[in-house]
C-alpha cells in the first residue's frame, strides 16, 4: 500500500490490474429447486431464451397468479447465465421477489436495492414568514447495507440478480468514480499502518475503538480491524508487522472468532456518494466562484436577506 494523500491515496494503493479485475467473477448461476418445468413452462422458457439471444429487447411473460412465472424467469436466468435486474412496482413486491429468488439461487448473489429512507421530508422555504424548513430523513441501516452489497456484487461478481423497486431508477453517479474509491489489501504487501488509516478515512470509514459496527474501523496494536459497509456479520482483520501485511483474516465482529484467512481483499467506500479528492477540490473552486457572482447579483437587486442566507 503506497501513499494515499499526496496525489490520491486510493489511486496510489490500487494497481490498475487489481482495481479493474472482478475478484469473485466467473461463477455460474445454479438454480436449486424441487420443481421441474411443466405445462406451458418448457415452451415459454425455450421461446423467451431464444428471443433474448436474438437480441429482442421487449418480451412479455403472461400467466395467472400461481402459475410459476417467477420460477420460469429463474430458469431462464440460469440457462442464459447473465446478470439480471428485476424491477417491482413497490417495496412490498420487491421484498417478495427477493425472497423467492434468494431461495432459487442460494449459492449466487441475489441482492436487494430499494430506497433506504424510512421517512423523508425535503427542505423548504416559506417566503411569507421567512421560514426555512430543514430536510429531515431517517435511514434504514439494514437496507443501506443491502444497497452496498448490491453495488459491490455488480462490480465484483458475474452471477448477480438485483431485485429493485421502480423508485430506484435514478443513478448513483459515476461507476468509474465509485470503482476508484477502493482500497486493495494483499498479503505480504509492503505498507504503513498510518497510510492505511488515512485511506480508510478517505473512504468515509470512522474510527471507533469502542463501538465496532458496520462502516467503522479500530486499531488494536499491530492489527487494523475493518467492518465493511456491505457485511452484516463479518469483518476483516489486517495484521501489519514491520510495514508489511503479514495476515488478513475474516472474523465474527460479535464474538471475535476467526473465520478464514484471506490473501486479497477489496474494500469499497462507506457511502455511494463518495467522490475522489481531485473532483471535490475542483468543485469547491467552481462553487466559490459562483457564490461571488450570485452574492453580487442579489445585492444589486437589493435582495439582502437572500445574500445573507448564502453567506451563512
List the helices and strands and how they pair.
Blueprint: H1 9-13, H2 16-20, H3 41-53, H4 69-80, E1 84-88, H5 91-104, E2 109-113, E3 117-121, E4 124-126, E5 131-133, E6 136-139, H6 141-156, E7 160-165, H7 175-180, E8 182-186, H8 193-202, E9 206-207, E10 216-220, E11 223-226, E12 235-240, E13 245-251, E14 258-261, E15 264-268, H9 277-300, H10 304-311
Parallel strand pairs: 1-7, 2-7, 9-10
Antiparallel strand pairs: 3-6, 4-5, 8-15, 10-11, 11-12, 12-13, 13-14
Helix pairs in contact: 3-4, 9-10
Describe the protein.
- By secondary structure, this protein is of the alpha+beta class.
- The chain has helices at residues 9-13, 16-20, 41-53, 69-80, 91-104, 141-156, 175-180, 193-202, 277-300, 304-311; strands spanning 84-88, 109-113, 117-121, 124-126, 131-133, 136-139, 160-165, 182-186, 206-207, 216-220, 223-226, 235-240, 245-251, 258-261, 264-268.
- A 6-stranded mixed beta sheet has the order 9-10-11-12-13-14, with helices on one face.
- A hairpin with a 2-residue loop joins strand 10 and strand 11.
- The radius of gyration is 24 Å and the shape is globular.
Percent helix among the residues? Answer: 25-40%
- Specify Rg, calculated over alpha carbons: 24 Å
Please write the string of helix (H) and strand (E) elements. HHHHEHEEEEEHEHEHEEEEEEEHH
- Distance between the ends: 41 Å
CATH topology grouping of the largest domain: Rossmann fold
**Form type:** globular
**Major β-sheet annotation:** 6 strands, mixed
Proportion of beta-strand residues: 15-25%
Unreliable stretches = 1-9
Give the name of the CATH architecture of the largest domain: 3-Layer(aba) Sandwich
Number of domains: 3
**Averaged pLDDT:** 89
Number of helices: 10
Given the helix and strand composition, which structural class is it?
alpha+beta
**CATH superfamily of the largest domain, please?**
P-loop containing nucleotide triphosphate hydrolases
Give the total of beta strands.
Answer: 15
CATH class descriptor name of the largest domain: Alpha Beta
